[in-house]
TrEMBL record:
It comes from Pelusios castaneus. The chain crosses the membrane at residues 44-62, 88-114, 135-156, 189-209, 261-284. GO terms for cellular component: endosome; plasma membrane. This is Ferric oxidoreductase domain-containing protein. It holds the Pfam family Ferric_reduct. It is found in: Membrane. Belongs to the STEAP family. It is a multi-pass membrane protein. It comes from the Eukaryota. Keywords: Membrane, Transmembrane, Transmembrane helix. Residues 91-224 form the Ferric oxidoreductase domain. The keyword Transmembrane helix applies.
Amino acid sequence: MGPRTNQHGGRRAAFFHLNQTHQFEFEYPSDQYCKQDLFPKWHLPMKIASITSLLTFIYTFLRDVIHPFVMNNENSFYKIPILVINKVLPVVSITLLALVYLPGILAAGFQLHYGTKYKRFPQWLNGWMLSRKQFGLLSFFFASMHACYSLCYPMRRSYRYKLLNWAYQQVERRKENAWIEHDVWRMEIYVSLGILGLGVLAILAVTSIPSVSHSLSWREFHCIQSKMGYLALLLCTIHALVFAWNKWVDINQFVWYTPPTFMIAIFLPIIVLLCKSILLLPCLRKKIQKIRCGWDANTETNKTQMTSRL
Ligand code: HEM
């Protein structure tokens, strides 16, 4: 009887709530409503994405548009809507992806340092760990946009004119075949890796939807989000490395003594992947596993101190 009354009470309350919402829908929301935080877990990822986008945009704009204008009086402003934006998107995407996995590495370092899982993480690390899903989803969003922008490259009129000009110059030089073997391989490989990376990111995004993640066991969810996440980061990093190919040693890439964006883009992912490989070394991996299963270095030392005193 009790639960039934409660159920009716609950229904009445819900109905009352509905009526109330209906009645006050067009009124100014209450003070409490206004103070409610909007998308709290998205604040940090959005701030970082906006700052990284703005800085990368300014950097690329100066290098790819202003530099040719100042040095050769070349008008490259047409590059802004697609070419410049398509440098910003992948840089932000891969940085956000690296930021999904960096806090896990810092947390492992923290636990190894204190030898316990019972010591609380600092507030900033806790907040960062809690917004990893949002970092990942934003990274996927930027990567999808990057893929769309990249695939529309050959559709652009500027590209068609350039292609015609190259063909004309080739005829002038009486060159029959423009095929450059290593360039062909470079592009086939990096585009393929990019598509694979995006595919893995899509799986990660789908499995982070609550209805899907709730249908998985903790082990399955952890396996997908951790192992496949690192796989995505690895694929995207190799994608950028293969895109760079021999540009690493090309002095012309260092416009106004600044490094090209791909070097900046893969700096953080490489650090994250290196740290993860170090943490996978058997001695460290076993210790972390022990700590996460509840082993505590401090109680262990206390125990040995006690037994030595006895
Ligand atoms: C369908 C999937 C993808 C395609 C077709 C693709 C294609 C491309 C292309 C054409 C470029 C050269 C851009 C340029 O000329 O400036 C490039 C660069 C790059 N891509 Fe992708 N990509 C894909 C997915 C991804 C993903 C998932 C990531 C990482 C999250 C990524 C990260 C990068 C990076 C960091 C660069 C170097 C940008 C630079 O600084 O110049 N790409 N990609």
